[in-house]
Amino acid sequence: MQMNDSQRIPASQEKVWAALNDPAVLKQCIPGCQALEMLSPTEMTATVVFKVGPVKATFGGKVTLSELDPPNSYRIAGEGSGGIAGFAKGGATVTLTPDGPDVTVLHYDVDAQIGGKLAQLGGRLIDSTARKLAGEFFTAFGNAVAAAQAAEV
Q1: In angstroms, rounded to a whole number, what is the distance separating the alpha carbons of residues 148 and 117?
Q2: CATH at 13
Q3: pLDDT per residue over 40-77, tens digit each?
Q4: Residue 117 lies in a domain
């Protein structure tokens, strides 16, 4: 499964970059995230609850940041297991482009794979759920960064 999209965020590129690397902001924005812990500047562990159709599972996994080019881009990759529900793994390339002094365009290209019971649910349900979750994350992320920016002004 692959998806890509862009979002305009009313904050400077440096502020958006800082938020992308802040576990508290990420935890608040990831749908179903119950725990997110920074192990090092490039590694995190996460616990996330997903519901796809009739299957609800808690996934525990590891997230790694690579190809860091602060404050322009990075690659985020992760994999997790949801027990009998299956597994999920994938990654995203995130690119930030300034659009004036206080607006940043965040672009993401995501590729993901799933297996186990989740994979049996059907491609359309999984794709629509993945797009919905990605949309929820980036909307919440944009709102969180914009609110932090507004609080500073």
Answers
A1: 40
A2: 3.30.530.20
A3: 999 999 999 988 778 888 999 999 999 999 999 999 99
A4: yes
